[in-house]
Amino acid sequence: MKTKQTTKTTYHIPIGPIHPALKEPVAFEFEIDGERIVDVDVSLGHVHRTVEWTATKRNPIQILYLAERICGICSYCHPTAFALAVENIANIEVPERAEYLRVIQAELERICSHILWAGVAAHEIGFDSVLFLTWQIREKVLDLTEYLTGNRITKGIITIGGVRRDITKEHHPKIFETLNYLKDNFEKLRKVYLDDKTFRMRAQGCGILTKEDALKLCAVGPTARGSGVKKDVRVDQAYFSCADLDIECITPDVLTGEVNGDVYDRIIVRLLEVKQAIDLIEQCIDKMPAGDIVSEPKVAKVLATLKKASGEGIGRMEAPRGEVIHYVKLVEGEEYPFTWKVRAPTYNNIMPWVPMLIGEQIADIPIVAASTDPCMSCTNRVAIVDSGKKYELNKEELHRLSVEKTRRLMA
Fold first, then answer.
1. What digits encode the pLDDT tens for the residues 341-392?
2. What angle do CA 385, 403, 395 make, to 5 degrees?
3. CA dist., res. 269 & res. 81, Å (int)
4. Contact assessment for residue 341 and residue 52, using Cβ atoms and an 8 Å cutoff
5. Looking at residue 191, what DSSP letter applies?
6. What percent of the chain has pLDDT over 90?
7. Out of 107, 217, 241, 255, which could bridge 351 as a Cys pair, Cβ 3.0 to 4.6 Å?
8. DSSP state at residue 320
């Protein structure tokens, strides 16, 4: 008796760069067997804003406001990392009080980012009522941010050598009112995201990134910590006043006693980091010394100092999505930086999508991708497809094309 031979057939499904489930342009090419993903390829390069090149025509103070616009959600950590790199080159010492103020603003941004992410994650699996709940809570934090800086998103608070606005005792009642509001609502968020049966069914065992893969693929931030990797710049290479604060890397086993590296674990990390950020802000207010908030208040004098500086500097910060790095090179006598290079955390967290998605269902793609909190505009590189051959533009070619386009626009 002959048995019938069956041939296994897989299909290719393109998703993106324009798709209802993707808030930013990124293209996936999935190979599927039925409803299960067996392979995935990620294609970037759909957004390029020439931010780094534009900076070579701006002085460092002007670049701070350009850096803010790399990402609306990380509009504080990017200019701060840039300022840190420049300060390292010019040996500018930031006043101790300003270092505490910088940490407060960074932790407020972390709270805003993580709560926004929680809302987006709920939206991706169809819980828009939870999205509205998180937005309502986040509004309080944005109100506090506006109260302290004058703006809700692009805050304009950082300057080379310190910060532009102080936090006085008159601000404390509003700060503690907001922090207490967050504490009161934290339990509500915890129950919705960690105890709700539907959330658990959609998140547990889904989008698993093992600790080995997280290390091999250089994942950062909550994506790495959700897989049990204790990696946090605030702890590993403390900056500003972080060394004086009680900070620990948060991994999911802190709450559950185990690490699975799934979407659920990444939810745990972000929720616990919101609670941790509240505590860090309170620590900063309690320990913050008196003193100046900027090393040199006269901008013209700062620029004159930077014009005499020469060398390379790196600014590292633990942004809400993970480690962000800014590399700057200054040349003595030049008003503008010779070069500026930004490595946003999403760049590290793209390749982990591959092991996360393989073996999952098509319906899980949005929540798995969203679980790393990606920002494509922060991380995009340019790629060209010509006759089926894909290549990346090198620095010289990109510079030439940028100059040509700028001249065309000016003409």
1. 999 999 899 999 999 999 999 888 888 988 999 888 888 666 566 666 666 6
2. 55
3. 23
4. yes
5. I
6. 65
7. 217
8. T
> What burial class does residue 71 get, using C-beta atoms within 10 Å of its C-beta: 0-12 exposed, 13-18 middle, 19+ buried?
buried
The residue behind tokens 């998703």 is 15
CATH 1.10.645.10 is the classification of domain 52-356+372-379: yes
Prior bond of 17 cis (ω within 30°)? yes
d(CA 411, CA 409): 5
**Mutual orientation of helices 128-149 and 172-190 as an angle, nearest 10°?**
160
The pair of three-digit structure tokens given for residue 402, joined into one six-digit string: 């940028």
Whether pTM exceeds 0.90: no
Name the average pLDDT for the chain: 89
User: Which pLDDT does position 50 carry in this prediction?
Assistant: 80
Cα–Cα distance, 244 to 248 (Å, whole number): 12
Beta pairing class for 339-343 and 322-330: antiparallel
| pLDDT at residue 8, rounded to an integer | 60
Q: For residue 161, give both structure tokens.
A: 């050598």
What count of residues does the chain have? 411
